[in-house]
User: Which sequence fits this backbone?
């Protein structure tokens, strides 16, 4: 897990703006998996193609660095609803779990900032953040800062949905639905990632890392100054929520404490521990004495550690998806011309697709196989007009 985080950080630092990237870049070496995928993700008209990055990655596996290849492939498979079975790491006897809601709300009430992290290839983390927004809104939270949202997308709060140029991870459906939900609930949504005009070449890796996090904090605080007294929820990747300097490295939350004199509530979702198969909702890690605690490398760095249920599926779709969307599945037969072949089936908001075409972000999508006769898709909201698209998705063996 730590190696993958370092790889992602190295990619973003070497190629600034990846987490909020626009794809227009110089010719890219095929040896870099993320860059290879990015070359195929959008065309010159900024239209999205979710299948092409997978085809390119699987076709060039032998030329790609294995660890970066694995992370890139997992990320792009997660975009199309293909999530691998997770190895369950049993919770040691020294720990137990506690219900989250009342504990979270009590602690969120006592501060003005909640920072929650995600693993970039786990859409369930975004779906869970979406479920927290209504509860936090009742406590007065009204801003949502999203590391993955391109700061240059200044029209998001008027448009109220993401498009292809809104970012990289924002093209994943669960992230898109988080942003839609936040906008509909009245949150002001913004990206706090380092901007192009703030980028600076630094030879030392640690200095580049700290520079990025310090500018993220500066950007966050600049927005807070425009909204005095407002409470903010921030979604970040992995280590950015660490509140204390470690091994000479300061992260986003550390700089917020220093520069903004704020004590955020920090919540980690990336623990290797999993809840039992019978669990149906996330829980907080606690000691045997029922005191919230944090295990592993984030011990002493964050406030709460949330454990998720293992991945289970209903009709081939993740159980958490239905819970987060709160809508019934749209079930329909696959058109005859697509039966017997692998397809990417995509569900779009009709209004968004009419305006944006293939620059629109699907509400839901997943890869079908040649044996399927029906699809199960989850709308963002009941009663809203939708469009279903089928795209051939023949993938080479990887």
Assistant:
């Amino acid at each position: 897990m730590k190696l993958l985080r370092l790889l992602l950080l190295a990619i973003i630092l070497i190629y600034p703006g990846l987490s909020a990237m626009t794809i227009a870049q110089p010719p890219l070496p095929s040896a870099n998996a993320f860059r290879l995928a990015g070359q195929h993700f959008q065309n010159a008209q900024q239209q999205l193609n979710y299948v092409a990055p997978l085809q390119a990655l699987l076709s060039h596996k032998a030329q790609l660095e294995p660890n970066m290849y694995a992370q890139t492939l997992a990320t792009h498979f997660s975009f199309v609803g293909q999530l691998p079975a997770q190895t369950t790491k049993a919770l040691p006897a020294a720990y137990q779990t506690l219900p989250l809601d009342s504990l979270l709300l009590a602690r969120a009430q006592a501060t003005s900032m909640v920072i929650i992290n995600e693993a970039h290839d786990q859409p369930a983390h975004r779906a869970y953040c979406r479920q927290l927004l209504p509860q936090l809104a009742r406590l007065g939270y009204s801003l949502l800062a999203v590391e993955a949202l391109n700061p240059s997308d200044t029209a998001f709060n008027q448009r109220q949905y993401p498009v292809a140029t809104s970012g990289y991870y924002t093209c994943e459906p669960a992230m898109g639905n988080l942003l839609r939900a936040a906008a509909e609930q009245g949150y002001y949504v913004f990206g706090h990632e380092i901007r192009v005009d703030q980028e600076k070449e630094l030879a030392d890796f640690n200095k580049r890392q700290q520079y990025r996090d310090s500018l993220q904090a500066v950007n966050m605080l600049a927005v807070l100054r425009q909204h005095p007294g407002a409470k903010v929820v921030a979604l970040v990747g992995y280590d950015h929520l660490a509140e204390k300097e470690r091994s000479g490295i300061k992260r986003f939350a550390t700089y917020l404490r220093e520069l903004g004199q704020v004590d955020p509530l920090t919540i980690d979702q990336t623990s290797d521990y999993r809840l039992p198969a019978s669990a149906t909702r996330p829980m907080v890690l606690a000691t045997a004495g029922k005191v919230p605690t944090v295990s592993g490398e984030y011990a002493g760095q964050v406030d709460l550690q949330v454990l998720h249920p293992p991945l289970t599926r209903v009709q081939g779709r993740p159980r958490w998806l239905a819970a987060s969307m709160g809508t019934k599945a749209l079930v329909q037969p696959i058109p005859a011309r697509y039966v017997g072949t692998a397809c990417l089936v995509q569900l779009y908001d009709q209004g968004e697709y009419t305006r944006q075409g293939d620059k629109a972000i699907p509400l839901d999508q997943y890869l079908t196989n040649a044996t399927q006769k029906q699809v199960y898709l989850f709308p963002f909201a009941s009663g809203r007009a939708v469009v279903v698209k089928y795209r051939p998705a023949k993938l080479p063996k990887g």
Q: What stands out?
A: The first strand starts at residue 95 and ends at 98. Residues 319-392 form one domain.
